[in-house]
Amino acid sequence: MAHKKGEARHLETLDRDLSRISYLELATTYTSRPLVGPSVSLFFVVLAGLAAALFFGHDSNSLIVIIAACLGAYMALNIGANDVANNMGPAVGANALSLGGAIAIAAIFESAGALIAGGDVVLTVAKGIIDPTSMGTTQVFIWAMMAALLSAALWVNLATWLGAPVSTTHSIVGGVMGAGIAAAGFAAVNWGTMAKIAASWVISPVLGGLIAALFLWLIKARIIYRDDKIAAARTWVPVLIGIMAGAFAAYLALKGLNKVLKIDLPMAVLIGMIAGTLIWLIMIPIIRRQSQGLENRNKSLKVLFGIPLVVSAALLSFAHGANDVANAVGPLAAIVQTSQSGDFMATVTIPFWVMLIGAFGISFGLFLFGPKLIRMVGSQITKLNPMRAYCVALSAAFTVILASWLGLPVSSTHIAVGAVFGVGLFREWYTERRILTARKPWPNRSDFAPEERRRRKLVRRSHFMTIVAAWLFTVPAAAVLSGMIFYIILSFSNFG
Q: Which residue in 100, 117, 44 sits closest to 361, CA to CA?
């Protein structure tokens, strides 16, 4: 008996010890989790530097190229963490995709877009913003590109930490402008180009919001508020999918394939019209089969928009990878070309190993740090369902095409976030309008208590102010930071 009691006490002691070990393992896992992202990121940055050392060779400028490769990798990580959320956030917020599925799809299509259709000419941004001849020497040009790259990466990193989606294009533009001013004065800047970029701060989100609200109005008027929703959906969903297909075909032709094959706007529109018509005809029998047996309620309609929304998110990621990878590797490729040839006026082609750094960096950044911004765009601004998220995706494609036709520079980040706000604000207006015009004697707007009116708001105003402030500060903040970094680099080089 005493032996059994002793054995029982021994087992209790063992259980307590094992429990302590389990708690210790759990605590260790919890405390080490925040270190995983920075550790993997640091490993990738070091790997990029090793790749530069391997492919560039050994000469007097090899150290400069290695440092630039590390900075390019750091910028690519930040693009993945911040910019990609705009494409995947609505699909995740609408529950059409899980967070893991969104990250997997985005990683594949962002990398494919960067490697297949990534830009060839990478000095365009530098030549469009500053006059390269004002740089004077090759060394000054290299320092300016390094300062621009580092300042843009630091600003995007800070914005991601604050939970604000910002334009990586505007960040690199601000970096180039600041370094150009520090190197050659204000006269070196093309202020006409900068004025257009500043105008896009307003044009991009407003256009995106209006177009998204217009499509949501169409869906509500023609499908949701019809007596027979399923019959209306059989007519209009194929049309909407055809519009989406046409818009994305034109979008990809302009923003992605244009880097491989020269396509002007009329040709892109023609490609879009042909693709849209074909997809519309194909989807008519498919939607008819999908809608069989569905109940006549809004929840049933979400099923019909789920797959098109996932496809649109994948296509947006492909186009984004093709278009925005140059924000990370463009200045890097310019430094590589200048270091090899000594001529910073020449048109530069991105080497394949540089493109790999950009493509994999975007994917790693999304995987490690993207969930925070994906949740922000997808669910913390306003509530999205597949139909509303579909309007956001359509708006992104249409706004880019319309802006290209008008010759206006726009930001994909500003368009997508503006479209999310547009959907939410339209729902606020539409809901209150239906209440006030209903047959029942609802109270007037002024009769609502302040608490009740705040409760009816469908868009979180605090996020609106944070995001707008981040947008307004992006170019000047990146410019000031770039100028400071340029002076620091120059002082160290002169000292050395």
A: 44
